Amino acid sequence: MGFGGISIWQLLIVLAIIVLLFGTKKLRGIGSDLGSAIKGFRNSVKDDETNKEEPEQLNKPSEREQTDTEKTKEREKN
């Protein structure tokens, strides 16, 4: 017996029917799309964890913001 009373032979028959219905190319495409979606999810979770560890960097102004403020100060002087 397999999962929940389904034997391995029944699972193989269902798998064969799915391959016949969709074809191997479409199943391969679905698999690669699913894999890239999982990879993107993992990367976003990693990015979120690194952002939580380094909150100081979020509060610091970037170089562009610093130059913009310097330019505004120069304009106000003139």
From TrEMBL:
Region annotation Disordered: where it falls in the sequence: 41-78
Domain of life: Bacteria
Regions of compositional bias (Basic and acidic residues) in chain numbering: 44-78
InterPro entries documented for this protein: TatA/B/E (IPR003369), TatA/E (IPR006312)
Transmembrane segments: 6-24
Keyword annotations of the record: Cell membrane, Membrane, Protein transport, Translocation, Transmembrane, Transmembrane helix, Transport
GO CC terms, sorted: TAT protein transport complex
HAMAP family in the record: TatA_E (MF_00236)
PANTHER family per UniProt: SEC-INDEPENDENT PROTEIN TRANSLOCASE PROTEIN TATA
Subunit architecture: The Tat system comprises two distinct complexes: a TatABC complex, containing multiple copies of TatA, TatB and TatC subunits, and a separate TatA complex, containing only TatA subunits. Substrates initially bind to the TatABC complex, which probably triggers association of the separate TatA complex to form the active translocon.
Protein family according to the UniProt entry: Belongs to the TatA/E family.
Job of this protein: Part of the twin-arginine translocation (Tat) system that transports large folded proteins containing a characteristic twin-arginine motif in their signal peptide across membranes. TatA could form the protein-conducting channel of the Tat system.
Protein name: Sec-independent protein translocase protein TatA
